[in-house]
Structure formats: C-alpha cells, structure tokens
Design goal:
Helix 9 (153-167) packs across helix 13 (240-278) and helix 15 (309-339) packs antiparallel against helix 18. The protein has helices at residues 5-11, 27-39, 44-50, 58-70, 79-85, 89-101, 112-121, 128-150, 153-167, 179-183, 194-204, 222-236, 240-278, 285-303, 309-339, 344-351, 360-365, 372-397, 401-407, and strands at residues 41-43, 74-76. The protein folds into 3 domains: 19-118, no CATH class; 127-190 and 246-312, no CATH class; 321-407. A two-stranded parallel sheet has the order 1-2. With 408 residues, it is mainly α. It is flat.
Amino acid sequence: MTKTSAAKASTGKTKLSEKPLLDMSDQSIKEMITASKARGFVTYDELNAVLPSDKVSSEKIEDTMAMLSEMGITVTDSEEGIEKKNVPEKKKGLLAKDTKTGTPTTDRTDDPVRMYLREMGSVELLSREGEIAIAKRIEAGREAMIAGLCESPLTFQAIIIWRDELNEGRILLRDIINLDATYSGPQIDNTIKPDEEASEEDAEKPADPASSPPKPAVEKSDDDSDDDEDDEDEGTTVSLATMEAELKPGIVETFDLIASEYKKLRKLQDMLVESKIKKTRKLSPDQERRYKKLSKSIIKNVKSLSLNNNRVEALIEQLYDINKRLLGQEGRLMRLAETCGVARANFIEEYRGQELNPNWVRRIAKLKERGWAEFVQTEKEQIKALRAEIQELASETGLEISEFRRIV
C-alpha cells in the first residue's frame, strides 16, 4: 500500500514517512472496517480481499491484524465460530453434541503467540527416518573427531597418563571409558553362552531310554508373569562396579599396548621434527615404514576404546589451547612484518611451510619485495624469539606445524 502522489505533494517534506498499515482513503477498506466494528469481528477471507498476500508482505499483514485487535475487532476463520460463541448457555449442550458428530471447527484467537503456534502446528515434524538420518550424521561427526584426535601424539600421551592414574587408584575406569558402550560392544568375551553350556551338559549325560515323560506345562497367571519379567529386568541390570571389574583387564592391556608402541613412535616423531628444525638427515625408508606401521596400529587401538565424552572434550580443548597460542605467535610475527611495509598476502606466502626452517630469516632478507629487508634489519631479535616459541610448540605436539594445523 503506497502513498499517492497527491499525498507526497501535500506534505512537502524531504523525508518519507512510514507507510500506513491501511489506506483509509480506499473505499473497500473503509467499508470493511465499518462492518467489522459493527459486528466485532472480521474473517480471514475479508481481510485477504483488501490485503492480497501477493502485494502485501506477511509482516504488514501481521501488523494490520494487531492494529485491528486494538480496535476491538477480532480476526476469525469464519462467521460460524463467532456465532457459536454467542449461543446462550441453554443451547451449548445441544451444540456440543452436534460438534461431536459434525465437522470440527477451528478455534479462533487474536493472540499472536497462539496464532504462531497454530501455524507451526501445520509444519511437518521429523519422521523416524529423518531422526535416524540425523543420528547417523552426528555419529559420523563424532567418528571424524575421534579420527582427528588419534592423529595427535598428545592423545597418546594423555592415555598413558590416564593408565598410570588408573593403576594407582586415583581415578576410576568409568572416568575414562564409556562403560555402557564398551560393555555392550565387542569388548566382552562371551566364549560360552548359556545355551551352549546346556547343550554341552546334555551331550555329556548318557541317554536314558526309560526316562519319564515330560511334565505338562503349568499355566502361569498374569501376576506370575509380571514377577518373572521383573526378575528378568533385575537380572539384566549390571552395576557399574561389575562392568568395571569385567572390562578393566582388557582396557588396561590396550593401554599398555598403546604406551609400548607410542614409546617407539615418539622417538621417530622427535627425529622427524628435529630434521625440520635443524635441517638434519630425514628418516630412512625403513624408519618411515616403521613410523607408518606404528601410527596405524596405535590409531586402531585408540579407536577401539569408547572414550568418555568428558575425556574427548578435554583432548579437544588441549588442541585448541595450543592452536590459540600458535595463532598468537604467528599473528604477532605478521603484524611486525606489516609495520615494516610487508604485504599480508606476501608474508603468508613466504611463511607457510617454512615454520621450522632455521634459515628462514636469511632467506627473507634476500627478498626484493618491499619491506622484507627493513623487517629483518629492525626486528631480527624479535623474529628469532617468536619463531623459537613456535618451534617449541612443534616439539610439544610432536608434529610439524602444517600437520598440526591440518588436524585442528
């Protein structure tokens, strides 16, 4: 509903005022408001006739409905709803009987919240298939997160610390492992099932040809069946202490295996990082094969553990904390370069992949682009200090900076 050109000319103002919700100069709108005030209500069909949805936004329609409510005009689906509300008390009983067998009527309301909820009620909720799809996506995301944690040596270090604390009795197994998921998973070694035991006992017993005929089955009452179900539920419920007692030996054995393999892997990781920092000899082909084999074996063992969510979050927080420190050091280094006139894009191009290069300062001093020579000349000591801190982070994580950045 736009302002007319005559109205624009009469105002004589440079700023446009807000558009009115209803154009009172429109004869159809005048008639609608007059009739609505007389009746006390207006139907949606009448409102849509003067406010076509293709020409007026939904926000304007909602504002108009609120304005009509302030005028004492109720917006309803049909006139029948208003007429039934005004029926005397004596006729309400008959009307109630009719509505039970007749066509249902929609409740009317001028409350914006209820109107919103009514509209939302028509929106289709998630189906069972949709819920399953979302659950699978959540599980896939968790698997990807665990896979990323398994690539970090910090995870293996944490597992070794947890093993020592568990052996010393400072923490419980339930603090590290999700007992329910592990107990119901493939960790339990049920070598002999009850049915198998029974069959073996029957096989050992000699056959008795003169055995008595089987006794007829006694019918159980409903009370007896309920008691049996309760007994079965009690039998299937396993306490946390029982779970820990059954799971602890296998979990500790996995922890010991991870610790043993990581001790060998850590030596190779230190050699790899040191070769990047000091430009020494890289790993030999045989060492690289051992490195990959040990990494694959440790990752497999870690994935077999259903870690507690709190422990997973602690590992993630540890990685984020180191990444925050790394970004802080790199940010300070880049700002120093920018103050000397080095372009940001140029700095990133020359810095990425050279985080552990001990000859990086001499290398950038020879660059011809603007600012590099001044950067090295004025900030040489600060550059060395910041890069030393970055190299310490690489030693702490046991990874190259580029590899750590990929994991995080």
